[in-house]
Design a protein that fits this description.
The structure holds 3 protein chains of 3 kinds. By secondary structure, chain B is an alpha/beta fold. Chain B has 11 helices and 5 strands, in the order βααββαβααβαααααα. Chain C has 2 domains: 88 residues, Elongation Factor Tu (Ef-tu), domain 3, CATH 2.40.30.10; 130 residues, Rossmann fold (3-Layer(aba) Sandwich). In chain C, 51% of the residues are buried. The chains are: A alpha+beta, B alpha/beta, C alpha/beta.
């Protein structure tokens, strides 16, 4: 399926209104101080069309912060696997976050598959939204090749002067556009405008760091003992925000939560962070990444080095959230440039 | 199953944390299926000295308080320090900013000689504590967790990461971005960033994280041009009695050397 | 958000029944466990299971019995955390949740026809016992077999009946040393590394299997290399924190390797370049 339709901007509000009547719709909403978050919406007016990456990425719908995976009963010696899911339409996903979702899909569909994730993934409709402008100084989507749509959506919206140009990639997507008379066939003028926008973006989006995309893996391999990690060691406060806001961080913890009857209860999977001091600690007390610097290096290695071996992909989407959120101002672009500046 | 007998006690405090239990609504009924409350001044008049679990609110601020908490400890199999006043000294710790005699006269005026007083101490600074429920007031979901742990004989580990972690997960706009100083970066999590979710700053009522990355934190303050004194003053509102822990730690270290 | 039962899940947990327990030392307790219907666990030496107690949680525990033992399997649990502490309160007839077996165990086919040198320190003896008993049950498949065991004190030794039998066997070189003896101890005192130089093997056709605490690895590996055993014939088993057992949760990651899937058994060849391994 590869088809373009258009939606008049004036019809956008009505489109979201009617869509939200049939399904739960999540979209970026302004929270003040140029912060945005994906929240449930019931009209187009609530949505921030031009938003910088949201505080948390849309991974929160695919991999909830807290998720029940088992129910147990002590007296009955019983364990029952549980699935939590909810059909959702997530609107307004930027290309960096579409890549993030695709990477998570890859992680959880790689055997041994995660049936909880896969069931949820299949129930979510993703609607992308093009970044017409560069968001801010923290992003590095261009060097990560994520500033243009590379698949991973059901529908993809691009804002033109009077319309949204909509690319239909899947049947799930076509069901939405076909379900309302608001969408019409894209005309050649629309295609032309889209082309112009994309070529303008080529001028606007430039590689953000001093190394090329294909040099990143090697850069991190050769700088394991760099002084840059010592500097980061002194600055990092190990709050774990960089991993929580990352669209591709998927580490988790598993804990039991017993009910007040002290008999039945559930097993919960929740987000965890490799930046926590106890993350890699074993029962004997040995900690294999005791230093904050080594934990930060581990985070970077998982984005730029280890992931190539395991999934043949960089796990950084260039969204810039880790740098944007860091109170200690540990900045991904600066880290890469500092590492690259060291003598080979 | 025989119900566990639970007694609530208050020392120097506003009893607001006990009020949280009284206000907990439906969940309270489930709790009452599990425990028998034998002592709870705010909701019942009966008193009993036969209990398994003591839930202690308030800080220890008088010689009489010291004797009373020692007696409670000798009866209770499990002692839960409940609320900031009990777990970290809380606002009562501000007393320790003054000379004891001055503050006694200031508070009790002419009848000061009737009231013996000591510097404010958290409960664990007087007797051993098995469980801590931090907060001013306590966060009820955490209290329920602690209660379940205590009744199952399991330890409860207070989260030792910063409130910022939970705050970010709740997608609050950072107070520092709004130009407001907040104690979230150095305060223990576990409250689900309750205050910030409701538009307030974090006041540090749960006490300081154990390993606060001092250098990194100082850099952050410098970056936002916040003097260390500000943070110390703000932190002292709840955490002045922490000095007792530090003194104790120092003493222990010296003995080791 | 709706909740539904899931027919297939990586977190599905079987009910394991405790057939027998024995307090082996102050800290270590033995459990013999059977799965529903007396099913075999079907594990390889070196693999582990995720053991659950409802309301308390789950932890990885290595299997201590040989795959040749059918219908039940053995675990030995050191009281070191909340879950393992709670396990010490369990007795015959109680149940635990079992997931697994997980991980890459020891490929016993590789060891066929070779000299086998097994070096176990402390808790490392628990998973090593699985391999020792496998090798002894298939003794004809292997050339010379050596087991070196190091314990802190005589009181820390496990499976005394079995080790007493091993000492008597002519087709097995079994040696035990303790860091610190007591009044009754007549055996060796000293580091396990001291035993290695005198072991009689043909290095090029020897597989050395080492399981013990991190500190032991550094010194034992040095001795094995001195003896000219090739890097890819030195086999180690690592211990890490684990939550899922299926290569997702990230807790057990050692550089790019996942201990729960790529290990816990590794060759020295695979580990020597990993700065987070040992």
């Amino acid at each position: 399926m590869d088809k373009y339709v258009v939606l008049k901007k004036s019809d956008f509000n009505g489109f979201i209104k009617s869509l939200s009547k049939t399904q739960k719709v999540m979209a970026p909403v302004a929270k003040g101080n140029n912060n945005y978050a994906f929240e449930e919406v019931s009209s187009g007016e609530e949505i921030s069309i031009s938003h910088i990456p949201t505080i948390l990425p849309p991974k929160k719908y695919f991999m909830p912060q807290r998720e029940t995976i088992l129910a147990f009963s002590k007296k009955e010696h019983e364990w029952k696997p549980i699935l939590e899911k909810e059909p959702l339409v997530v609107f307004g996903i930027h290309t960096c976050d579409l890549e993030g979702i695709q990477l998570l899909n890859k992680v959880f569909t790689t055997p041994p598959q995660d049936t909880n994730y896969i069931n949820r993934m299949n129930d979510i409709t993703t609607i992308g939204l093009e970044c017409n402008d560069y968001c801010d100084e923290y992003a590095s989507c261009c060097v990560m090749n994520n500033h243009l749509p590379n698949s991973g959506y059901d529908l993809f919206f691009t804002e033109l002067s009077n319309d949204f140009m909509v690319h239909i990639l899947t049947e799930k997507g076509e069901k939405i556009t076909g379900g309302t008379p608001l969408f019409s066939e894209a005309q050649s003028a629309h295609h032309k405008a889209l082309e112009q926008l994309r070529s303008k973006k080529k001028e606007l989006f430039k590689d953000e760091v001093v190394v090329q995309n294909n040099e990143l893996k090697e850069l991190f391999a050769r700088t394991v003992h760099s002084a840059v990690w010592e500097d980061i060691q002194n600055r990092c406060v190990a709050c774990g925000n960089c991993t929580n806001v990352c669209p591709t961080c998927y580490c988790f913890d598993i804990k039991d939560d017993i009910n007040l009857d002290l008999n039945t209860g559930v097993r919960i999977r929740s987000w965890d962070s490799c930046q926590n001091e106890t993350f890699a600690k074993v029962a004997g007390g040995e900690n294999f990444r005791e230093e904050r610097g080594s934990r930060q290096r581990h985070r970077y290695m998982r984005k730029f080095n280890y992931s190539i071996g395991k999934f043949n992909k960089y796990f950084c989407t260039g969204c810039g959230r880790c740098s944007r959120t860091c109170m200690a101002k540990i900045n991904l672009k600066e880290t890469i440039n500092s590492l690259a500046g060291e003598k080979k | 199953m025989k119900k566990t007998k639970v007694a609530f006690f208050d020392f120097s405090c506003c009893e607001g944390c006990q009020l949280q239990v009284a206000n907990m609504g439906e969940a309270l009924l489930d709790v009452l299926d599990l425990i028998e409350v034998v002592n709870f001044r705010e909701v019942m008049s009966e008193r009993s000295d036969d209990y398994d679990v003591a839930v202690v609110e308030g800080s220890i601020t008088s010689p009489h308080g010291v004797e009373r908490i020692k007696k409670i400890r000798s009866i209770a199999k499990v002692l839960i320090a409940y609320g900031s006043c009990a777990t970290i000294g809380g606002v009562n710790g501000m007393k320790n900013n003054f000379e004891l005699e001055d503050i006694r006269k200031y508070v009790y005026q002419d009848s000061a000689h009737h009231f013996h007083t000591i510097p404010t101490r958290a409960v664990h600074q007087v007797v051993p504590v098995d469980y801590f429920v931090h907060g001013c007031p306590v966060y009820i979901p955490e209290f329920v967790k602690v209660l379940k742990s205590a009744l199952s004989g399991l330890p409860y580990r207070v989260p030792d990461d910063a409130v910022c972690t939970e705050c970010k997960l709740n997608e609050n706009v950072c107070m520092y971005e709004k130009g407001i100083t907040c104690l979230g970066p150095i305060t223990r999590a576990g409250c689900n960033s309750w205050c910030v979710n409701n538009g307030n700053i974090c006041y540090g009522c749960r006490g300081m994280v154990t390993n606060p990355a001092q250098k990194g934190q100082k850099d952050i303050l410098d970056r936002y041009q916040i003097p260390m004194e500000w943070i110390e003053n703000k932190m002292n509102m709840y955490n002045k009695a922490r000095e007792n822990d530090l003194a104790e730690e120092k003493k222990n270290n010296e003995q080791k050397c | 958000m709706t909740q539904a039962l899931l027919t297939e899940s990586g977190y599905a947990t079987q009910t394991g029944k405790i057939l027998h327990t024995e307090q082996m030392t102050k800290l270590e307790k033995f459990f013999e466990i059977s799965l529903p219907g007396g099913k075999d666990l079907n594990h390889a030496p070196g693999q582990f299971v995720m053991v659950s107690i409802p309301g308390i949680g789950e932890a990885p525990i290595s299997v201590s019995s040989s795959p040749t033992k059918k219908a039940s399997f053995d675990l030995v649990v050191r009281n070191a955390g909340i879950l393992t502490g709670a396990m010490h309160n369990l007795e015959e007839g109680d149940t635990v949740g079992i997931r697994g077996p997980f991980g890459r165990g020891i490929d016993t086919n590789l060891l066929k026809g070779k000299d086998i040198l097994m070096v176990a320190g402390g808790c490392g003896f628990i998973p090593m016992r699985s391999l020792i008993n496998y090798v002894l049950d298939n003794r004809d498949n292997f050339n010379s077999v050596h087991v070196l065991l190091g314990c802190k004190t005589p009181a820390d030794r496990l499976f005394l009946h079995e080790t007493a039998n091993w000492e008597k066997r002519k087709d097995l070189d079994f040696q035990c040393t303790v860091d610190k003896g007591d009044a009754e101890w007549k055996g060796r005192v000293g580091l396990i590394t001291k035993l290695i130089p005198d072991v009689s093997i043909t290095p090029s056709s020897t597989y050395a299997v080492v399981i013990g605490p991190p500190i032991m690895y550094k010194f034992v590996i040095k001795e094995l290399l001195n003896k000219n055993i090739p890097d890819n014939q030195i086999i180690l088993s690592l211990e890490r924190h684990m939550k899922c057992g299926v290569g997702k949760c990230g807790h057990c990651q050692i550089n790019q390797k996942y201990c729960c899937q790529d290990g816990p058994v590794f060759t020295y060849d695979e580990l020597k370049e990993l700065n987070e391994a040992i």
